[in-house]
Design a protein that fits this description.
The structure holds 2 protein chains of 2 kinds. The termini of chain A are far apart. Chain A is built from 20 helices and 15 strands. Chain B is α+β, with helices and mostly antiparallel strands. Chain B has a domain of 93 residues: 2-Layer Sandwich (Alpha-Beta Plaits). Chain B is elongated. The N terminus and C terminus of chain B are likely disordered. The chains are: A alpha/beta, B alpha+beta.
């Protein structure tokens, strides 16, 4: 006797009606890009959103099933799986839990460089006037360890922190002991131009597990132009310092950052090639910060954001070619954004957080004991703008810092979910609010998105990255995945494949 | 929706777009104006009969008016569409966010309301009964 299968409807019943889950949309290259609350996305044909709100979509189409699978709709056959979606949202916003993670100690403002774009440094050999005292360092450590974060990073900055090396020697063992006492893990980083770093200092960093972050703006002509110092030898000293630091601390414990000045704009390939030549495997194509002395010198160093975006896109294309050639080089901003777009995770990158990461995820303890919500806000303070000074280590505790008028005003403008221009934006889940940037550039923490350099940069960069996703070239996307996951390049991702 | 496109020959050329609030609410219209406010001064006039007119005047000389009317209309319709999505999903969005953060330890009190998934929960072998403690 022949046996027949049950009809298809038994396994996949046709839904009678469906309901929408929250999402936002935009239009990209003739498609609608829908993004839900957890940052999951789908490219759909033009008219999809209207069909959804009019309940006119074909419930037996592949698009319908895709929308259901990615939490844009649910029906009586599927349920909304609210718990799953809520968990995804919670994962995306993981950065709001357990702050503050990054603590920046400005141990001195003194520096022997006079970089055009520097926001804070003081050229003086007079020790004391611009150095952090031991009492201030002790109070800063106490405040730092009041934060609930189980894992913390203490970063030494300046000026040039190596000029206050004795204070670093004082702070490091105390911070480690306090972390151990409280059961916290601690990362230590020093941000230095390496010009004054001796082998003894580097050996101390090796022994104490302190990582080095330095500046490399490109090849010699560009680096020395951006970063003048007596002898005009900043590049030579930086390269010498990088090599010695790698030899003593290990290659993986030395990182470099670059700043894009007006002079950099025409040299993106040379800058990237310099990073390859120096065997770095990451590069961060960063625009100049519109703070502090950079504002005073903007005619010399500044440029319009659209010029930076051209620089970024050319640079990213060149970096992809380098990866195809077999050398793994990740662009950090791209890596951060793709992590937010393609994975359930958020990132620790403060500028792209909502609620904004300032104070919640970073606090800066200035040499004089003032506490700021971010590195950028202490740069503003150097221009006599104290809007984001939360308090002082000698007067305040963590509660009073976070309940200060400065903090509360900033927090109000910290959620892009409720900001004009952002509340409807499809890219909201990937972007931030950055009230300090908007205060600095527009005189308003809430900001005006149509004229915001922050908004322009992120809109354009995110759209650019989505164009790669839409194109879906396996080699290119494979390279991006290698950056996200940290895995080596595979044969598929190399040009010869 | 009635639309009107006027190119003035006066010293300050402008474009006028007219909307029925049955199609585009005043909120959506203002959101559209917000994004055009970089290059244009936007003047919104309600006629009291369910229509509004938006006058777009370039802030600086040299800003082209070509395509601006159609672009404004399309963006206004997109904002109207976004408003419909937001209205339809507001309750479930509140529920999702409350649920996401009530389990994070951020909130001191549990939010009011049911947080189970009714359809899934009704099944005898539902995922929740397997995965959760209740």
């Amino acid at each position: 006797m022949a046996r027949s299968f049950y009809p298809l409807q038994r396994f996949a019943p046709i839904p009678k009606q469906f309901s929408l889950l929250p999402f936002r949309f935009t239009r990209v290259d003739g498609k609608e890009l829908l993004v839900n609350e957890a940052g999951e996305f789908i490219f759909a044909p033009e008219g999809t959103t209207r069909s959804l709100v009019d309940a006119a979509i074909d419930t037996q189409s592949i698009l319908y099933r895709d929308l259901k699978a990615k939490h844009f709709i649910y029906d009586e056959t599927s349920s909304a799986l609210l718990d799953v979606l809520a968990t995804k949202i919670r994962t995306k916003y993981d950065h709001v839990m357990g702050g503050t993670k990054l603590h920046i100690f400005v141990v001195t403002l003194r520096c022997e460089h006079s970089c055009h774009y520097c926001q804070v440094s003081r050229q003086t050999s007079e020790k004391g006037q611009f150095d952090m005292s031991r009492e201030t360092a002790d109070r800063s450590l106490s405040l730092m360890f009041e934060a609930p974060a189980p894992h913390m990073t203490l970063e030494f900055q300046g000026g040039e922190p190596m000029l206050a090396f004795d204070l670093i020697e004082y702070i490091v063992p105390r911070a480690k002991a306090e972390a151990q006492l409280r059961g916290k893990t601690l990362d230590l980083v020093v941000t230095t131009n390496l010009a004054c770093a001796t082998d003894e200092m580097l050996t101390f960093f090796r022994d104490e597990g302190v990582k080095v972050s330095t500046s490399l703006d490109g090849p010699a002509f560009l680096h020395n132009m951006n970063r003048p110092r007596p002898g005009n030898d900043s590049y030579e000293r930086a390269i010498d310092g990088i090599e010695r630091a790698r030899a003593i601390l290990g290659h993986e414990n030395v990182a470099a950052l670059m700043t894009t000045t007006l002079a950099s704009l025409g040299h993106v390939r040379e800058i990237i090639d310099e990073y390859v030549k120096r065997e770095f495997h990451t590069i961060f194509l960063r625009p100049i910060s519109p703070y502090g002395f950079a504002v005073k010198t903007r005619k010399r160093t500044g440029y319009e954001m659209n010029r930076f975006l051209e620089f970024y896109k050319q640079g990213l294309a060149h970096i992809l070619d380098i990866n195809r050639g077999g050398y793994r080089l990740a662009e950090i901003y791209t890596q951060i954004l793709f992590t937010k777009i393609l994975t359930p995770q958020g990132t620790g990158y403060v500028d792209l957080q909502s609620p904004a990461g300032e104070a919640w995820n970073v606090l800066v303890y200035n040499y004089n004991g003032d506490v700021f919500a971010s590195d950028e806000s202490r740069m503003l303070a150097e221009m006599n703008d104290l809007t984001f000074r939360l308090g002082n280590v000698h007067r305040d505790n963590r509660r009073s810092l976070f309940m200060s008028e400065a903090a509360l005003k900033m927090f109000e403008a910290s959620c892009n979910q409720s900001l004009a221009g952002c509340s409807d934006c499809a890219f909201q889940a990937y972007c931030g609010a950055d009230p300090i940037y908007h205060h600095a550039t527009q005189g308003d923490m809430y900001g005006h998105r149509p004229t915001s350099g922050f908004c322009m940069r992120n809109m354009e960069v995110i759209k650019h990255l989505f164009s790669f996703i839409k194109e879906d070239d396996p080699q290119t996307m494979g390279i991006f995945w290698s950056w996200i996951t940290g895995r080596p390049l595979t044969v598929t991702e190399l040009a010869c494949a | 929706m009635v639309e009107e496109n006027e190119h003035s020959v006066a010293a300050e050329p402008s474009i006028i777009a007219r909307f029925s609030h049955d199609v585009v609410s005043i909120e959506s219209l203002l959101k559209t104006c917000y994004w055009f406010s970089r290059d244009f001064v936007c003047e919104v006039t309600e006629d009291g009969a369910g229509y509004s007119a938006v006058s777009l005047r370039p802030k600086a000389p040299g800003v082209s008016l070509e395509g601006v009317h159609d672009d404004f209309m399309n963006q206004a319709l997109d904002f109207a569409l976004r408003e419909r999505v937001t209205t339809k999903t507001a309750d479930i969005r509140d529920l999702l966010l409350a649920k996401a953060f009530s389990e994070s330890g951020v909130l001191e009190d549990q939010p009011l309301g049911m947080f189970g998934d009714a359809v899934e929960d009704a099944k005898p072998d539902s995922m929740f009964k397997i995965l959760s403690n209740y």
